[in-house]
Design brief:
Largest sheet: 6 strands, mixed
Helix content: 25-40%
Strand order of the largest sheet: 2-1-6-5-4-3
Mean pLDDT: 95
Order of helices and strands: HHEEHEEEE
Number of strands: 6
Low-confidence stretches: none
Radius of gyration: 13 Å
CATH class: Alpha Beta
Structural class: alpha+beta
Oligomer: single chain
Number of helices: 3
Shape: globular
């Protein structure tokens, strides 16, 4: 299930979890057997528990970032969004590939990111 409303709701929940680092907020984003690719060719985090542990192992501090995004493509099978993440001393461009299940939880997530020049 990917439609513009579902993708927007999921990203809003993702940003909320990003800013709370609450394991329940993080876990609610993902299907039990979800796969989260932190980079396209790195080994993914597999399953909700590993995703929560991986997330918390490299968490950002609440309020440390801003994230602006726009959809690139949304189909029944996949959503692709382009974003910009701004930290106090760094800015990154992001490309996310999101596959939601029928309950609006992510079953597969892949992110690409590039740091802007200083």
């Amino acid at each position: 299930m990917n439609d513009a409303d579902a993708v927007t709701a999921w990203i809003n929940a993702y940003v909320r979890a990003w800013n709370t680092n609450d394991p329940q907020d993080i876990g609610e984003l993902f299907a039990e057997q979800a796969v989260y690719h932190t980079a396209p060719f790195d080994p993914p985090w597999r399953g909700r528990g590993q995703i929560i542990d991986g997330w918390l192992g490299r968490k950002d501090e609440p309020g440390e970032t801003t994230f602006d995004w726009r959809p690139v493509a949304v189909t029944d099978a996949v959503a692709v969004v382009q974003g910009t993440t701004v930290y106090p001393t760094q800015t990154f461009s992001n490309l996310w590939v999101i596959r939601l299940d029928e309950d609006g939880r992510c079953r597969e997530f892949t992110e690409w990111w590039m740091q802007h020049p200083a």
